[in-house]
Design brief:
With 415 residues, the chain is mainly alpha-helical. It is 73% helix and 6% strand. The chain contains 10 helices and 8 strands.
Length: 415
């Protein structure tokens, strides 16, 4: 029985030993499991911490992305506004340049106009000086009766200081008539020495003047008393034949102007003289009328009654006696025209100078505006560049944020 008990005890001790060993193993396993659990808890805590960090970073990145997107949108609006400003400045610059070019062209035109006015005024002034000089020359010639016969000059000079002589003289025929330039040569030849004749009111005046010439040994002169001289005219048949002839210019007495009281004298001297355009026509008319009257051409050739002819070149020095008064009148009229023209030029020049100064001021304003627009345009262009650069930076930043967010999303899938 004891043996059985010993065996049973031994069996129990063996079982206990085994159980202790197993318990030790279980304890060891439990400790290992506890250690593994601790490691897992640490890992879980680490992963949870990583997830929290990832979530926090993702949230921050989302906020950053929103800020960047808002910044990019704001920069886009700013760029659009700045580009509109730049576009307006480009348009204003172009308008200012066009206006400036137009003003420069206008100013150049005004300056050219002013220069032309100045040149024209100088030309008119020179012409006026020449005209005044010519007038003075002719007036001196008229005053001194240059070209007239010496006895006539002496008598008229004496009449200037002698009232009785002056009262007796009407004037020299050449000074009392006016002849168109076209007929000057013909009328001068037709009158011949009669151009120097002195017109008086009566034959008594003429006699008084003749006595004065004799007493003072002034020479001889021909006098034309208005009260006794009677005109002469072509017979109607000759007149009709002349008027119908080729080259007919007129009866000499009809081709000049004169005071009414000289009508009989002019008719007496020129009433039977016909003027034609040239010598062939004069010869043809003379033959047609049987050489009955004198015919003078515009060039001064003469077909005399009876058929004799006078002609050739005419030697002239300066203006003819008949043309002197006409030229003097024309010159004085021209003098008045020139003075008026110069006065007009002065007014125009003054007006032109005012316009030039005004245009120059306007050009200066446009220049200043153009410079201002150009500077503003440079600034606006630079601002656009800065905005574009900043926008590119923000786009790069947005790209980096999106890239990091994608990486975070991938990491979360792995946790």
């Amino acid at each position: 029985m004891l043996q059985d008990q010993e065996k049973e005890l031994a069996a129990l001790l063996s079982t206990i030993d085994q159980s202790q060993k197993k318990l030790a193993q279980l304890r060891k396993r439990m400790e290992d499991l506890q250690e593994e659990l601790f490691d897992d808890k640490e890992k879980a805590q680490s992963l949870n911490s990583d997830l929290m960090l990832l979530d926090s970073r993702a949230k921050n990145l989302a906020n950053d992305r929103m800020l960047v997107v808002n910044e990019i949108d704001g920069l886009k609006i700013k760029l659009e506004d700045q580009e509109k400003i730049l576009s307006d400045l480009v348009s204003k610059t172009a308008q200012a340049e066009a206006a400036l070019d137009g003003k420069k062209a206008s100013l150049d035109a005004l300056r050219k106009e002013f220069a032309a006015l100045t040149v024209s005024a100088e030309q008119k002034k020179r012409e006026l000086d020449n005209t005044k000089y010519r007038i003075k020359t002719l007036e001196d010639l008229e005053k001194n009766r240059e070209g007239y016969q010496e006895p006539v000059r002496r008598l008229l000079s004496a009449a200037e200081t002698d009232a009785e002589l002056k009262k007796s003289v009407v004037g020299v025929l050449g000074e009392l008539i006016r002849v168109p330039s076209k007929y000057e040569t013909a009328i001068e030849i037709a009158l011949g020495q009669a151009v120097h004749n002195i017109v008086t009111q009566t034959e008594r005046d003429a006699s008084f003047l003749i006595d004065y010439l004799k007493k003072n040994h002034f020479g001889r002169a021909t006098f034309l008393p208005v009260n006794v001289i009677r005109g002469r005219e072509l017979e109607p048949g000759y007149r009709d034949a002349s008027e119908s002839a080729d080259g007919f210019c007129g009866i000499a007495s009809d081709l000049l102007s004169y005071p009414d009281h000289l009508k009989e004298i002019i008719k007496n001297l020129l009433g039977r003289i016909v003027v034609t355009d040239d010598l062939p026509h004069a010869l043809k008319l003379s033959a047609k009328t049987s050489q009955a009257f004198r015919i003078v051409t515009l060039e001064g050739d003469v077909v005399n009654p009876g058929g004799s002819m006078t002609g050739g070149s005419i030697r002239r020095q300066g203006t003819s006696l008949l043309g002197r008064a006409r030229e003097l009148e024309n010159l004085k009229a021209r003098e008045a025209e020139l003075e008026q023209a110069i006065s007009g030029f002065a007014a125009e020049s003054e007006s032109s100078e005012i316009k030039i100064k005004s245009a120059a001021r306007e050009q200066a304003v446009l220049d200043e505006s153009l410079r201002a627009y150009s500077l503003d345009r440079v600034r606006a262009d630079a601002a656009c560049g800065q905005i574009r650069t900043e926008a590119e930076k923000q786009k790069t930043r947005l790209s980096l944020i999106d890239k990091e967010r994608s990486e975070i999303s991938a990491k979360r899938l792995l946790v």
